[in-house]
Amino acid sequence: MSSHPTELSETSSKVASQRLWQEVCRDGLGGEARLDRLDGALHLWAFALAGSGAATAAEAALLSPDEALRAERFRFERDRGRFIAGRATLRRILASYLDADPRSLTFSYGPAGKPEIAGPQAAAKLSFNLSNSADWALLGVSQGRCLGVDLERIPETEDLAAVAKRFFAAAEAAALAAYDPPLYAEAFCAIWTRKEALLKAFGAGLSLPLDGFCVSTDPRQPARLLSTEFRPAEARRWSLLDVALEPPLAGRFRAALAVEGGPPVCRCFRLA
Fold it and tell me: What's the pTM value of the predicted model, to 2 decimals?
Protein backbone atom coordinates (compact mmCIF):
# COMPACT_ATOMS: atom_id res chain seq x y z
CA MET A 1 0.00 0.00 0.00
CA SER A 2 1.27 3.49 -0.78
CA SER A 3 3.14 5.38 1.91
CA HIS A 4 1.70 8.68 0.72
CA PRO A 5 -1.01 10.19 2.94
CA THR A 6 -4.59 9.52 1.94
CA GLU A 7 -6.68 12.67 2.05
CA LEU A 8 -10.23 13.74 1.30
CA SER A 9 -11.09 17.21 0.13
CA GLU A 10 -13.36 19.46 2.14
CA THR A 11 -16.15 18.95 -0.40
CA SER A 12 -16.43 15.25 0.39
CA SER A 13 -19.67 14.10 2.02
CA LYS A 14 -18.25 10.79 3.19
CA VAL A 15 -14.94 10.20 4.94
CA ALA A 16 -12.71 7.54 3.38
CA SER A 17 -13.31 4.61 1.14
CA GLN A 18 -11.68 1.23 0.81
CA ARG A 19 -8.92 2.54 -1.46
CA LEU A 20 -8.14 5.44 0.88
CA TRP A 21 -7.25 3.58 4.07
CA GLN A 22 -3.51 3.38 4.65
CA GLU A 23 -2.17 0.40 6.57
CA VAL A 24 0.29 1.27 9.34
CA CYS A 25 2.32 -1.19 11.40
CA ARG A 26 1.76 -0.85 15.15
CA ASP A 27 5.52 -0.44 15.56
CA GLY A 28 5.59 2.31 12.96
CA LEU A 29 3.24 4.86 14.48
CA GLY A 30 5.92 7.55 14.59
CA GLY A 31 5.83 7.87 10.83
CA GLU A 32 2.22 9.13 10.77
CA ALA A 33 1.07 9.91 14.32
CA ARG A 34 2.88 13.23 14.59
CA LEU A 35 1.63 16.74 15.24
CA ASP A 36 3.26 18.07 12.06
CA ARG A 37 1.32 15.44 10.11
CA LEU A 38 -1.99 16.81 11.42
CA ASP A 39 -1.44 20.34 10.07
CA GLY A 40 -5.15 21.20 10.19
CA ALA A 41 -6.29 17.74 9.12
CA LEU A 42 -8.19 15.11 11.07
CA HIS A 43 -6.82 11.58 11.48
CA LEU A 44 -8.92 8.45 11.81
CA TRP A 45 -7.40 5.24 13.18
CA ALA A 46 -9.16 1.86 12.92
CA PHE A 47 -7.77 -1.07 14.88
CA ALA A 48 -8.75 -4.51 16.12
CA LEU A 49 -9.14 -5.15 19.85
CA ALA A 50 -8.52 -8.90 19.81
CA GLY A 51 -5.10 -10.13 20.92
CA SER A 52 -3.20 -12.86 22.67
CA GLY A 53 -2.92 -13.13 26.44
CA ALA A 54 0.70 -12.03 26.26
CA ALA A 55 -0.23 -8.95 24.24
CA THR A 56 -2.95 -8.10 26.74
CA ALA A 57 -0.47 -8.35 29.61
CA ALA A 58 1.93 -5.98 27.84
CA GLU A 59 -0.93 -3.58 27.10
CA ALA A 60 -2.16 -3.71 30.70
CA ALA A 61 1.24 -2.42 31.83
CA LEU A 62 0.52 0.85 29.99
CA LEU A 63 -2.69 1.60 31.88
CA SER A 64 -3.01 4.05 34.75
CA PRO A 65 -4.23 2.78 38.16
CA ASP A 66 -7.75 4.09 37.54
CA GLU A 67 -7.87 2.43 34.10
CA ALA A 68 -6.66 -0.84 35.61
CA LEU A 69 -9.42 -0.59 38.20
CA ARG A 70 -12.00 -0.02 35.48
CA ALA A 71 -10.67 -3.08 33.63
CA GLU A 72 -11.11 -5.25 36.71
CA ARG A 73 -14.79 -4.32 36.92
CA PHE A 74 -15.60 -6.13 33.69
CA ARG A 75 -17.34 -9.41 34.39
CA PHE A 76 -16.16 -11.22 31.26
CA GLU A 77 -12.53 -11.72 30.29
CA ARG A 78 -13.30 -10.93 26.65
CA ASP A 79 -14.69 -7.50 27.53
CA ARG A 80 -11.82 -6.84 29.92
CA GLY A 81 -9.30 -7.67 27.20
CA ARG A 82 -11.01 -5.40 24.70
CA PHE A 83 -11.03 -2.51 27.16
CA ILE A 84 -7.33 -2.97 27.94
CA ALA A 85 -6.42 -3.21 24.24
CA GLY A 86 -8.44 -0.10 23.45
CA ARG A 87 -6.94 2.04 26.20
CA ALA A 88 -3.41 0.83 25.55
CA THR A 89 -3.65 1.53 21.81
CA LEU A 90 -5.21 4.92 22.52
CA ARG A 91 -2.25 5.75 24.76
CA ARG A 92 0.27 4.58 22.18
CA ILE A 93 -1.25 6.62 19.36
CA LEU A 94 -1.69 9.81 21.40
CA ALA A 95 1.78 9.45 22.90
CA SER A 96 3.22 9.19 19.40
CA TYR A 97 1.67 12.54 18.46
CA LEU A 98 3.01 14.08 21.67
CA ASP A 99 6.43 12.38 21.54
CA ALA A 100 5.81 11.05 25.04
CA ASP A 101 5.81 7.80 27.00
CA PRO A 102 2.33 6.23 26.76
CA ARG A 103 2.37 5.67 30.52
CA SER A 104 2.97 9.37 31.17
CA LEU A 105 -0.34 10.55 29.70
CA THR A 106 -2.97 11.82 32.11
CA PHE A 107 -6.61 12.53 31.33
CA SER A 108 -9.31 14.76 32.73
CA TYR A 109 -13.00 14.07 32.21
CA GLY A 110 -15.82 16.46 31.39
CA PRO A 111 -19.23 16.51 33.12
CA ALA A 112 -20.51 13.78 30.78
CA GLY A 113 -17.30 11.73 31.02
CA LYS A 114 -15.62 12.84 27.78
CA PRO A 115 -11.84 12.48 28.24
CA GLU A 116 -9.26 15.15 27.45
CA ILE A 117 -5.50 15.17 27.72
CA ALA A 118 -4.43 16.85 30.96
CA GLY A 119 -1.14 17.94 32.49
CA PRO A 120 1.76 19.46 30.54
CA GLN A 121 0.73 17.73 27.30
CA ALA A 122 -2.60 19.61 27.27
CA ALA A 123 -0.74 22.57 25.76
CA ALA A 124 -0.63 20.71 22.43
CA LYS A 125 -4.45 21.07 22.22
CA LEU A 126 -4.78 17.55 20.85
CA SER A 127 -8.44 16.52 20.61
CA PHE A 128 -9.48 12.90 20.34
CA ASN A 129 -12.44 10.59 20.60
CA LEU A 130 -12.56 6.80 20.77
CA SER A 131 -15.41 4.43 19.94
CA ASN A 132 -15.50 0.65 19.98
CA SER A 133 -17.95 -2.02 18.92
CA ALA A 134 -17.38 -5.75 19.30
CA ASP A 135 -13.69 -6.34 18.57
CA TRP A 136 -12.97 -3.15 16.60
CA ALA A 137 -12.27 0.45 17.57
CA LEU A 138 -12.19 3.79 15.77
CA LEU A 139 -10.18 6.76 17.04
CA GLY A 140 -10.43 10.32 15.76
CA VAL A 141 -7.58 12.78 16.40
CA SER A 142 -7.43 16.50 15.64
CA GLN A 143 -5.79 19.63 16.97
CA GLY A 144 -7.92 22.43 18.31
CA ARG A 145 -11.27 21.12 16.98
CA CYS A 146 -13.92 19.32 19.03
CA LEU A 147 -14.89 16.01 17.50
CA GLY A 148 -16.85 12.85 18.11
CA VAL A 149 -16.77 9.44 16.42
CA ASP A 150 -19.05 6.45 16.70
CA LEU A 151 -18.58 2.90 15.45
CA GLU A 152 -21.39 0.35 15.66
CA ARG A 153 -21.94 -3.15 14.38
CA ILE A 154 -25.07 -3.31 12.22
CA PRO A 155 -27.65 -5.11 14.37
CA GLU A 156 -29.33 -8.29 13.21
CA THR A 157 -31.92 -9.50 15.71
CA GLU A 158 -32.85 -6.66 18.05
CA ASP A 159 -36.30 -5.07 18.09
CA LEU A 160 -35.09 -1.96 16.34
CA ALA A 161 -38.52 -0.39 15.93
CA ALA A 162 -39.00 -0.29 19.70
CA VAL A 163 -35.55 1.24 20.19
CA ALA A 164 -36.22 3.86 17.52
CA LYS A 165 -39.58 4.76 19.04
CA ARG A 166 -37.98 5.19 22.46
CA PHE A 167 -34.84 7.13 21.53
CA PHE A 168 -35.17 8.75 18.10
CA ALA A 169 -36.98 11.95 17.24
CA ALA A 170 -40.48 11.35 15.90
CA ALA A 171 -39.50 12.41 12.37
CA GLU A 172 -36.54 10.01 12.37
CA ALA A 173 -38.62 7.08 13.62
CA ALA A 174 -41.27 7.76 10.99
CA ALA A 175 -38.70 7.92 8.19
CA LEU A 176 -37.05 4.72 9.42
CA ALA A 177 -40.37 2.85 9.34
CA ALA A 178 -40.54 3.33 5.56
CA TYR A 179 -37.44 1.21 4.92
CA ASP A 180 -37.70 -2.49 4.08
CA PRO A 181 -35.14 -5.11 5.17
CA PRO A 182 -32.20 -5.32 4.81
CA LEU A 183 -31.87 -1.54 4.41
CA TYR A 184 -33.88 -1.04 7.61
CA ALA A 185 -31.08 -2.23 9.91
CA GLU A 186 -28.47 -0.19 8.05
CA ALA A 187 -30.67 2.92 8.19
CA PHE A 188 -31.19 2.40 11.92
CA CYS A 189 -27.43 2.11 12.41
CA ALA A 190 -26.77 5.17 10.25
CA ILE A 191 -29.11 7.27 12.40
CA TRP A 192 -27.63 5.88 15.61
CA THR A 193 -23.98 6.48 14.67
CA ARG A 194 -24.70 9.97 13.35
CA LYS A 195 -26.49 10.94 16.56
CA GLU A 196 -23.90 9.33 18.85
CA ALA A 197 -21.02 11.03 17.03
CA LEU A 198 -22.75 14.37 17.55
CA LEU A 199 -23.43 13.69 21.23
CA LYS A 200 -19.79 12.83 21.76
CA ALA A 201 -18.66 15.93 19.89
CA PHE A 202 -21.00 18.07 21.99
CA GLY A 203 -19.44 16.49 25.09
CA ALA A 204 -22.94 15.99 26.43
CA GLY A 205 -23.18 12.20 26.52
CA LEU A 206 -26.66 10.96 27.36
CA SER A 207 -27.38 14.14 29.36
CA LEU A 208 -28.73 15.43 26.04
CA PRO A 209 -31.64 13.28 24.84
CA LEU A 210 -31.24 11.58 21.48
CA ASP A 211 -34.65 12.86 20.40
CA GLY A 212 -33.56 16.48 21.00
CA PHE A 213 -32.07 16.79 17.52
CA CYS A 214 -32.67 15.33 14.04
CA VAL A 215 -30.21 13.87 11.54
CA SER A 216 -30.66 12.61 8.00
CA THR A 217 -31.89 9.02 7.92
CA ASP A 218 -31.01 7.56 4.51
CA PRO A 219 -27.77 5.53 4.77
CA ARG A 220 -27.21 6.02 1.02
CA GLN A 221 -27.24 9.83 1.29
CA PRO A 222 -24.85 12.26 2.99
CA ALA A 223 -25.07 12.58 6.75
CA ARG A 224 -26.53 15.90 7.95
CA LEU A 225 -27.54 17.49 11.22
CA LEU A 226 -30.96 18.84 10.27
CA SER A 227 -32.18 20.58 13.41
CA THR A 228 -31.79 20.86 17.16
CA GLU A 229 -34.35 21.71 19.81
CA PHE A 230 -31.84 22.89 22.39
CA ARG A 231 -29.95 25.45 20.26
CA PRO A 232 -31.02 25.96 16.62
CA ALA A 233 -27.70 27.55 15.58
CA GLU A 234 -25.87 24.30 16.46
CA ALA A 235 -26.94 22.78 13.13
CA ARG A 236 -24.63 25.27 11.37
CA ARG A 237 -21.75 24.85 13.81
CA TRP A 238 -20.98 21.18 13.12
CA SER A 239 -20.00 19.02 10.18
CA LEU A 240 -21.43 15.49 10.19
CA LEU A 241 -20.01 12.79 7.91
CA ASP A 242 -20.28 9.05 7.44
CA VAL A 243 -17.08 7.02 7.49
CA ALA A 244 -16.82 4.48 4.66
CA LEU A 245 -15.10 1.47 6.18
CA GLU A 246 -12.88 -1.13 4.55
CA PRO A 247 -13.08 -4.92 4.93
CA PRO A 248 -13.46 -6.65 7.30
CA LEU A 249 -15.61 -3.83 8.75
CA ALA A 250 -17.41 -2.87 5.54
CA GLY A 251 -20.93 -4.29 5.42
CA ARG A 252 -20.83 -5.29 9.10
CA PHE A 253 -20.31 -1.91 10.77
CA ARG A 254 -21.33 1.72 10.34
CA ALA A 255 -19.35 4.73 11.55
CA ALA A 256 -19.84 8.48 11.67
CA LEU A 257 -17.76 11.54 12.47
CA ALA A 258 -18.88 14.91 13.85
CA VAL A 259 -16.45 17.81 14.01
CA GLU A 260 -16.69 21.48 14.86
CA GLY A 261 -16.49 23.80 11.86
CA GLY A 262 -16.40 22.97 8.18
CA PRO A 263 -15.82 19.49 6.72
CA PRO A 264 -12.24 18.45 7.47
CA VAL A 265 -9.50 17.05 5.30
CA CYS A 266 -9.12 13.51 6.67
CA ARG A 267 -6.29 11.00 6.63
CA CYS A 268 -7.33 7.45 7.44
CA PHE A 269 -5.19 4.67 8.86
CA ARG A 270 -5.68 1.04 9.84
CA LEU A 271 -3.30 -0.55 12.33
CA ALA A 272 -1.90 -3.85 11.14
Answer: 0.90
